[in-house]
Amino acid sequence: MREVPANILESISIDCVIFGFDGQGLKILLIRRKYEPSEGAWALPGGFIKRDENLDDAAKRILKDLTGAHDIYMEQVHAFGAVNRYPLRRVITISYYALVKPEHFSLIAGADADRVDWFSVKEMPELPFDHHSILEYALQKLRYKVRSQPVGFELLPKKFSLTELQSLYEAILGEELDKRNFRKKILKMKLLVDLKEKQQSVAHRAATLYQFDSKNYAIMQEKGVVFDL
Amino acid sequence: MREVPANILESISIDCVIFGFDGQGLKILLIRRKYEPSEGAWALPGGFIKRDENLDDAAKRILKDLTGAHDIYMEQVHAFGAVNRYPLRRVITISYYALVKPEHFSLIAGADADRVDWFSVKEMPELPFDHHSILEYALQKLRYKVRSQPVGFELLPKKFSLTELQSLYEAILGEELDKRNFRKKILKMKLLVDLKEKQQSVAHRAATLYQFDSKNYAIMQEKGVVFDL
DNA sequence: TTTAGTTAATGTAAATAGTACACTAAGTTT
DNA sequence: AAACTTAGTGTACTATTTACATTAACTAAA
Predict the structure, then answer these.
(1) Can you give the pTM of this predicted structure?
(2) CA B142 / C1′ D1 distance in Å
(3) Residues B180, B84: one domain?
């Protein structure tokens, strides 16, 4: 445990819930805490806000300092402020979340972390403080969001099959989807470009590859088109 | 302007966006600020959090101290933390909102407010700091919510007509709804009890009165039934 | 070279939900 | 009795959702 520097706001922290999808299941990025309180525990990457820093900027900096992961677009989720949530003093934390592709980031433990790693959401270590609630809340939000917006294409390779896309959605939602209905819906959105290419060297019938149509997505967003999965 | 007491967290405030519906239009509860900064301006009721107070409790207390309105269930909306949003020092604010029936509350300006009043959302005074953004954000949330959940029954008299209910929804959404379709949908939800009673002494055909079926609502919520208006 | 194994790809019928739309009913007031 | 005001109602059309099973294409192993 160390002293609180003067240029930070000592009563407000940010915690980041970074979800990752690697083609298998849903993962979450944790750091191992180098200092008290809860030294040695795996926890959400979090830290304090500087006096001259906006919230979104603080979230980015904190994540980068602890894990090395940068250029991640995060969204604010919720403020958690139970009186005794943090043992040393009163701290209210604001949570942020993002969904990323693990292999895009080389992780480097820094600042108050001595290790960083991805954990499967299904097999999580015990988390300190109220980090479990924070995680659950963010997961709810992610699931909600993924149903109403075409989220997550950036998590797949540039060229992907519809089955891969479906697995992604199933991993996030934690439930199985009907193949034909999924395809119908996703193709009707006109957000995928059929590349007229096939998978190579797979031990079964090769799937057609698609690409996310980000141009059309931008246009539709401007028009205020609502998506729904 | 006064000193910051020691038992409060000086960098975190709460601002309350209290929407009211009085049968006519959507209103919002504002206070007139008694002290600098922005002394004399109409603003959202807001204040600082005490060290031994949870967020939700703080929101309730702050609202009560400034306006006299109590027993209002508020929900957290968003944290706003632009570096210069508050002129005196760095303050991050967490917004809360609620939707209530104005005539249920006797307003008493207190603490840092010398007046309290309801304003039509359509004719708002200039608000200080980033209160306008905070209000807009809460309004978005309210509109969103009212479409997906049976919100707002508590704003009407215990016995109400379908037309009154429809006016409420129209006021919140800021758009007109089709009478027949509205009735079809709302009745299909099985959330209203037909009281087999008629309005009294109205200068036209009397409408049937209904009551919100909170018992059935609780049951349906448990089952996870999704509503959609 | 045949067979087994694996995943890709496809369509339809039925049910449900959403939308647009106009007239009659029941009271009160003049 | 006529005029006014709001209540109350149904239908046809379209779009969306859901459940569901077979054939196609390719590889690997026998």
Answers:
(1) 0.88
(2) 49
(3) no
Q: Between the CA of A198 and the C1' of D23, what is the distance in angstroms?
A: 19
**pLDDT tens across A33-46, in order?**
999 899 999 999 99
Q: Of B92, B121, B147, which residue is a domain's last?
A: B147
Query: What tens digit of pLDDT does each residue of A52-110 get?
Result: 999 999 999 999 999 999 989 999 999 999 999 999 999 999 999 999 988 888 898 78
B51, B65 Cβ separation under 8 angstroms: no
Which nucleotide does the CA of A180 lie closest to, via C1'? C10
A47 and A140 both lie in a single domain: yes
Considering only the beta carbons, identify the residue of B11, B79, B82 that sits closest to A94: B79
Element (H, E) at A49: strand A46-50
Domain count across chain B: 2
Does A2 fall in a domain?
Answer: no
Structure-block tokens of residue A75: 């969204």
Q: Are residues B163 and B143 in the same domain?
A: no
**CATH code assigned at B164:** 1.10.10.10
Count other C-beta atoms under 10 Å from residue B87's C-beta.
11
| pLDDT over 70 at A1, yes or no | no
Is nucleic acid strand C under 7 Å from A177's C-beta? Answer: no
Chain position carrying tokens 């539709």: A220
> What are the structure tokens assigned to B79, written together?
């944290």
Q: How far is CA B86 from the centre of its chain?
A: 24
Q: Is residue B111 part of a domain?
A: yes
Window from A13-27, A61-75, A104-118, B184-198 with minimum mean pLDDT: A104-118
**Does residue B32 sit in the same domain as residue B122?**
yes
Contact B23, B104 (CB under 8 A): no
**Preceding peptide of A5 cis, ω within 30°:** no
For position B109, which CATH number holds?
Answer: 3.90.79.10
Estimate in Å the CA A204 to C1' D21 gap, whole number: 20
pLDDT at B152: 81
Average pLDDT score, chain B: 91
pLDDT in tens, A181-220: 999 999 998 899 999 999 998 889 999 999 999 888 888 7
Q: In the listed set B120, B147, B174, which residue is the last one of a domain according to the structure?
A: B147
CB contacts of B51 in chain A (<8 Å) are: 83, 90
Q: Quote the domain boundaries for residue B183.
A: 153-223
Nearest to A128 by CA among A38, A46, A48: A38
Same domain flag for B55 and B93:
yes
**Band of pLDDT at residue B81, cut at 50, 70 and 90:** very high
Is residue A96 located within the same domain as residue A208?
Answer: no
